[in-house]
Amino acid sequence: MTKRIHIWARGIGVAVAAMAIFAVTMVSFISLTLLVISMEEGGANLSDSTVSLTGAVVLLSQGIGFNSGSFTLGVVPLLLTLLLIALIRQLAQRFGTSLPGYCAGLLTWIVLNLLLVQNTAVNLSGSTISHVIRTALVFSLGYLLADISNWKEIQALLSFYREHVPSQIRLIIRIGVITWLAVTALFIAIALGTCIYWMVVNHQVMARLFALLNMGMGSRILTSIASLMWIPNLCMWALAWVSGSNFQIGDAGYFSMWLGKSTDLPPIPAFGLLPDQVSNDVIRTMLLTLPMTLGFVAALVVIVHPRSCDAWTLITGKCDDITWKQAIIRLSYPIGALCITATLMVLSFLSLFGVTNGPLGKDRLAHVGVNTLEATRSVAQPTFLGFTVAWILVVVIISFKFGIHIVLMSIQRRAEASKEIDVESLHDTNNVSASIGDHSRVISSKDYGSSETSTTVLVHAENLGSSKKEADTNAKED
């Protein structure tokens, strides 16, 4: 009983410690920001609203938007969300994880967030049920990513999986999941590189916005740090932009590679980093081919890598050592793996693009972000095309190799058959010659009773069905 209570206490400790650390950090930063703004602007003291605003930001980092008067904020700062998940994971690793501890910690986390909901002065979006679901999802992600593989329940599931799922199916699933993680990481790297390019090119526009807003140096620094909390959102918008889709700032701004326009954007300096259209057709075409190229290279590695489907053996090995059945089975592995990758890609990008959207106000700014379905299709469709092209290319190369081998073997067999026929004909001719030689006789020098005259009779007898005895008799009579 004491051990069970200790396990529950660990889960509760993870929830309480994570909330305390995160809330103290947020209240410190918000207090500093409000203090600097009050000092530079010379207005009323804004520190009185620190506690209420901290609760709202903690809830906002878990997907719960808020509004206060005409101000609405529903775009989740995903960097804060990721930091909160990482904090929960780190604490769970330090305290230890278990299924009872998870349940106790989850319940504690939900209660703490409901207390914030009740004591926040701003109006929160969504119902209480949605608040519970979103906060529970954040805690679950952090806790389950800590050390879930060592749970005895998970170990039992893994043992059941290994015993009842064939090794070939497990290989296909493992390749599909690894490929999905690798492709997703590459897309995120492309998106981050695009954001960095936007910052380098458009940082002067952001500086001009700071000047137009009469913001002091302290306010500029703290506002820039606060804006970094939405960098993951901007990265996902950049991924949609670079893959041929678009993103919008409500009705005030529309951004794609073909068109970049904005009218009456909110006075947020970070909006100065948003891109213009790409006027160079060559650069635009190169950017549009990035997803297909990435999919092609990833699929090619999956198909030919020795630790994956190992089609390289089919390409470089001897055709006599490989059967058609082996080739078909070997080429069917990447089909299953890439189908798993495609499914996981669609689900993950639907989720990622979905959580980056939200409102920044009402009416004109009711929707900020991307069209989730269109953005997912712009990323996934060319990637799947790259998968298909890579697989077809390998199949064509292997089929060409086997076809050449079959043609050469056919020519060789025909040559060998012709040679055997010639040898048999030559052998038959030799047999006939030998038979003729055996049945030929030479009759030489026979005396017919005269000593002066002798006649040499040469008789060449062919065996045309007569016996040797009959031939000798005819020669004597002559």
Describe the fold and architecture.
There is one protein chain. This protein has 15 helices and seven strands. The protein has helices at residues 2-41, 50-60, 78-95, 99-118, 128-147, 152-164, 167-212, 217-227, 231-242, 281-288, 290-304, 312-316, 324-355, 372-438, 468-477; strands at 66-68, 71-73, 123-124, 247-249, 253-255, 260-262, 368-370. It has a four-stranded antiparallel β-sheet. Residues 440-472 and 474-478 have low confidence and may be disordered.
Uncertain runs are: 440-472, 474-478
Q: Report the radius of gyration as a whole number of Å.
A: 42 Å
The number of strands is 7
Helix percent reads 55-70%
Mean pLDDT: 82
Provide a count of the helices.
Answer: 15
Short descriptors:
478 residues; 15 helices; 7 strands; disordered C terminus; mainly alpha; 3-stranded antiparallel sheet; 4-stranded antiparallel sheet
Question: How is the topology of this model organized?
Answer:
Layout (H helix, E strand, L loop, with lengths): L1 H40 L8 H11 L5 E3 L2 E3 L4 H18 L3 H20 L4 E2 L3 H20 L4 H13 L2 H46 L4 H11 L3 H12 L4 E3 L3 E3 L4 E3 L18 H8 L1 H15 L7 H5 L7 H32 L12 E3 L1 H67 L29 H10 L1
Antiparallel strand pairs: 1-2, 1-3, 4-5, 4-7, 5-6
Helix pairs in contact: 1-2, 1-3, 1-4, 1-8, 3-5, 4-5, 7-9, 7-11, 7-13, 11-14, 13-14
